[in-house]
C-alpha cells in the first residue's frame, strides 16, 4: 500500500526539524578572546585534516619563497605574534588546545593582495600584499588576523552554517514544493537561497572578518606591535575597487579601517604592557 504524499512529506519535515534541532542545540561553542557564541558542529580533528590537505594542495601549485629578506621578515613577525598568543593561552590554561594546531606560515610569490589561513593553523601570505602591510606592525596586523581565523574556528562555523542553510532550504522545499507548480517552486527556491545567502551567509562571513580583525588587533598588541598600524593597513588596501558590501563576503576596506580605529584605544593598554615586558 502506498503512503499518501502528504504523510511522506510530513515525515520528511519532521526528520529535517529534528536534525536542525540537534544541529543547533548540540554545537554552541564560544569564540576565544571575543566571547561570541557560535554554531560549530565540526570536530577539530576533521577540520584540521581538511586544512592540512587544502594547504598541501595550495603549496603544490605555488611558487614558495623560502629565502630572502621578505620571507625572513614574515617568519620573524609570525613567530613573535604566535609566541604572544601561546603565552595568552598558557595564562588561560588552554595550552593543549593551542598546540592542536599545526602553526606555520609560507610566503608565496603571487601578485594578488591576499593572505589566508587554513583550519589547521597553516597560513599563506602572497608577496603582493607586502607593499600594503608596508612595515612590521602592518604585517603583524595581517598575521594576527589570519591566526585569529583559526583560533575562532571560522571555517568550521561556515561549514555548520551551510549545513543549517541547506536544512532550512530542504524544509521549505518539503513544506511547499508539492503544493505549487514546478516553475513557481523553482523561483521560490531561488528566492529562499538568495535570502539565506544575502541575509545570513554573507553577513556572517563579514562578521568573521571583523571578528578576526578585532582578535588580531589584540594579538598584535600582546606581541608588542603598534595597533595604530592595523587601520592604516586597510586604508592602504582601500585603493582596490570592491563590490558593494552587501554583496561581499568581506567588509569594505574603509569599513574595516573605521572599525579598527574605534578599537585601537581599547588595546593601547595591552600594547603598553607588552612594551614594558620588552616585547
Keywords:
two-stranded antiparallel ribbon; alpha+beta; four-stranded mixed beta sheet
Radius of gyration from the alpha-carbon trace, in angstroms: 22 Å
Largest sheet: 4 strands, mixed
Strand content: 5-15%
- Report the structural category: alpha+beta
H/E element order: HEEHEHHEEEHHHHHH
Q: Measure the end-to-end span.
A: 76 Å
Could you report the average pLDDT, rounded to the nearest whole number? 88
Structure, described:
With 279 residues, this protein is an alpha+beta fold. The protein has 10 helices and 6 strands; from the N terminus they run αββαβααβββαααααα. The protein has helices spanning 5-25, 44-60, 69-92, 95-98, 130-133, 136-151, 154-176, 182-222, 229-237, 253-276; strands spanning 28-30, 37-39, 64-65, 104-108, 115-117, 122-126. A hairpin with a 6-residue loop joins strand 1 and strand 2 (37-39). The radius of gyration is 22 Å and the shape is globular. The model is unreliable at 5-23 (pLDDT under 50).
Describe how the helices and strands are arranged:
Blueprint: H1 5-25, E1 28-30, E2 37-39, H2 44-60, E3 64-65, H3 69-92, H4 95-98, E4 104-108, E5 115-117, E6 122-126, H5 130-133, H6 136-151, H7 154-176, H8 182-222, H9 229-237, H10 253-276
Parallel strand pairs: 4-6
Antiparallel strand pairs: 1-2, 3-4, 5-6
Helix pairs in contact: 1-7, 3-6, 6-8, 6-9, 7-8, 8-10, 9-10
Amino acid at each position: 500500500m502506498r503512503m499518501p504524499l502528504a504523510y511522506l512529506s510530513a515525515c520528511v519535515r519532521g526528520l529535517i526539524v529534528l536534525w536542525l534541532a540537534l544541529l543547533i542545540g548540540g554545537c554552541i561553542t564560544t569564540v576565544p578572546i571575543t566571547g561570541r557564541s557560535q554554531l560549530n558542529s565540526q570536530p577539530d580533528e576533521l577540520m584540521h585534516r581538511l586544512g592540512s590537505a587544502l594547504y598541501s594542495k595550495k603549496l603544490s601549485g605555488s611558487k614558495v619563497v623560502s629565502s630572502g629578506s621578505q620571507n625572513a621578515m614574515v617568519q620573524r613577525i609570525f613567530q613573535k605574534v604566535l609566541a604572544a598568543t601561546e603565552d595568552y593561552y598558557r595564562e588561560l590554561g588552554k595550552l593543549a588546545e593551542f598546540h592542536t594546531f599545526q602553526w606555520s606560515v609560507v610566503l608565496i610569490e603571487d601578485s594578488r593582495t591576499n593572505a589566508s589561513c587554513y583550519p589547521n593553523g597553516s597560513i599563506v601570505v602572497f608577496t603582493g600584499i607586502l607593499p600594503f602591510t608596508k612595515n612590521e606592525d602592518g604585517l603583524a596586523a595581517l598575521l594576527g588576523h589570519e591566526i585569529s581565523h583559526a583560533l575562532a574556528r571560522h571555517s568550521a562555523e561556515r561549514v555548520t552554517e551551510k549545513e543549517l542553510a541547506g536544512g532550512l532550504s530542504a524544509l521549505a522545499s518539503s513544506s511547499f514544493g508539492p503544493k505549487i507548480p514546478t516553475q513557481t517552486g523553482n523561483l521560490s527556491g531561488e528566492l529562499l537561497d538568495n535570502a539565506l545567502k544575502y541575509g545570513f551567509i554573507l553577513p556572517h562571513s563579514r562578521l568573521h572578518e571583523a571578528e578576526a580583525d578585532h582578535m588580531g588587533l589584540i594579538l598584535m598588541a600582546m606581541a608588542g606591535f603598534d595597533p595604530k598600524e592595523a587601520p592604516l593597513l586597510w586604508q592602504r588596501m582601500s585603493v582596490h575597487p570592491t563590490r558593494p558590501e552587501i554583496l561581499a563576503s568581506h567588509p569594505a576596506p574603509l569599513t574595516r579601517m573605521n572599525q579598527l580605529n574605534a578599537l585601537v584605544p581599547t588595546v593601547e593598554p595591552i600594547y603598553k604592557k607588552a612594551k614594558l615586558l620588552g616585547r
